Amino acid sequence: xxxxxxxxxxxxxxxxxxxxxxxxxxxxxxxxxxxxxxxxxxxxxxxxxxxxxxxxxxxxxxxxxxxxxxxxxxxxxxxxxxxxxxxxxxxxxxxxxxxxxxxxxxxxxxxxxxxxxxxxxxxxxxxxxxxxxxxxxxxxxxxxxxxxxxxxxxxxxxxxxxxxxxxxxxxxxxxxxxxxxxxxxxxxxxxxxxxxxxxxxxxxxxxxxxxxxxxxxxxxxxxxxxxxxxxxxxxxxxxxxxxxxxxxxxxxxxxxxxxxxxxxxxxxxxxxxxxxxxxxxxxxxxxxxxxxxxxxxxx
Length: 299
What we know:
four-stranded parallel beta sheet, alpha/beta
């Protein structure tokens, strides 16, 4: 039996999921838009988006914390407020696997079934089964999907969000969105505000005010972990167009390199790998990157 499962990992997963089904009994199948529809709403209707994953849920529930952001009571309150917000200009997004595991890689299926086994009952206190959520996976469009051809299509769709637009990136010190690739080559302009690569929420108010000051008439892209989830909501409330874009650059680089698992990337901090590549920016991109920085906060 064990040798059969080793030859048929999908069957092994199905059997394991069936055996643990009692741990998920009574959990709703949440309503979540497709990745494509979520991107369309952002690009064509200029909606802001705040995205929730296990890290944000865990922060609210105080069950664990990622190493890149300490749990904070105020952060948890903002995350919980944003999760229940109902604004016409804001998409509240949750992981697609909370609706369906179809199209997910096997590792992603295991992760989310385990998560629901452990925390699914607690999620019921946070999420409404009748609400239509956006898909938080817009920045996780490559590695977790079975269909890699779909990933290339999604990447092209994502680029329509910032096509010919002035962009303000609010990111961690070593995130370096678009450096060394063509992800934002179609933007009219791109400038940056840098925050800390870890525990960015310590400087939340200063980063928020700077984002409002420099991004009022721009598309604001945020990549600051759970801080970005909270800030995209606060920016939307202040009349800004704010997109919590998260790991989009990392996924894009993994796609270009045809990675089969999470690998370190040169010149970037990748929070989900145990190893790190050199943080030094290649000389060919260093000057243009430094010229794009408007200010640094907490760095």
